[in-house]
Amino acid sequence: MSKKSKAVVLLSGGLDSTTVLAMARAQDYDLYALSFRYGQRHLVELESAKKVAEQMSVTEHVIAEIDLRLFGGSALTAEIEVPKHDSVADLSSGIPVTYVPARNTIFLSFALAWAEVLGASDIFIGVNALDYSGYPDCRPEYIEAFERMSDLATKAGVEGHQKLKIHTPLIEMTKAQIVQQGLALGVDYALTSSCYAPDEKGYPCGACDSCLLRAKGFAETGITDPLLTSESSSL
Fold first, then answer.
1. From its phi and psi, is residue 17 left (phi > 0), alpha (psi between -120 and 50) or beta?
2. Residue-by-residue DSSP string for the chain
3. In this predicted structure, what is the pLDDT of residue 232?
4. What is the CA radius of gyration of the chain?
5. What is the pLDDT of residues 172-229, one digit of tens each?
6. Phi and psi (nearest 5°) for 130?
7. Where is average pLDDT lowest: 58-67, 88-97, 136-145, 167-176?
């Protein structure tokens, strides 16, 4: 029996990253999940990440500790109000205040470091360029540039032991297609958390960018989001 290839999967605990983890599992990778406690206001996502990692039987789940509140600059890491809207149509076309400066660059750098230690050449990330909130570090050209840089930045890359591939299986999918893909792979979306401004019990607000995009995805599939329970009836 051939040995499985190792892959580092960035796992926030949200809908997209959980779907990506399921997709990597379906491709028979040996899974190493990487999450971050980075000073985000929606810490409940880490509890979801733990549950998802356990349910999908990853080989190892690491939660890295960094504090992006030192810099702020985002509604997720500073005392800036998370915008709320009535519908997806109300979302602005510009880069929203929930953008965290350089977040994916930081996260991918950690993933690159762990991949080099593991002898892995594959990193999975749930960026999306269609139904997304306008973040610049979710675009295909950014991912391609980081991939090129990675081969110049590591001992493994310079010595030819590693040619990094950053997998972005969701990048051209709508939220509805992502939900459908996850359900086909047996994802339990009740374990996930997408909200940027959950209440003290962790229930989603239903009005932030992330909640609205998630709702759009489930609505377009004709399936009820399992997070819409009686306990979160305000959605």
1. alpha
2. -PPPPEEEEE--SSHHHHHHHHHHHHTT-EEEEEEEESS-S-THHHHHHHHHHHHTT-SEEEEEE--GGGT--STTTSS-PPP--SSGGGS-SS--TTPPTTHHHHHHHHHHHHHHHHT--EEE----SSSS---GGGSHHHHHHHHHHHHHHSHHHHTTS---EEE-TTTT--HHHHHHHHHHTT--GGG----SS--TT----S-SHHHHHHHHHHHHHT---TT--GGGTT-
3. 42
4. 17
5. 999 999 999 999 999 999 999 999 999 988 899 999 999 999 999 999 999 999 998 6
6. -105, -80
7. 88-97
The owner of tokens 């965290």 is: 100
Domains of the chain: 6-227 (3.40.50.620)
Q: Give the separation between CA 212 and CA 217, rounded to whole angstroms.
A: 9
Q: Is the dihedral of CA 205, 209, 212, 215 positive or negative?
A: negative
- State phi, psi for 167 to the nearest 5 degrees: -85, 125
Yes or no: say if 142 and 136 are a contact pair by the CB < 8 Å rule. yes
Which token pair is 30?
A: 């040996």
Task: List residues bridging with 64 in a β-sheet.
Answer: 36
Unique residue bearing structure tokens 């809207």: 85
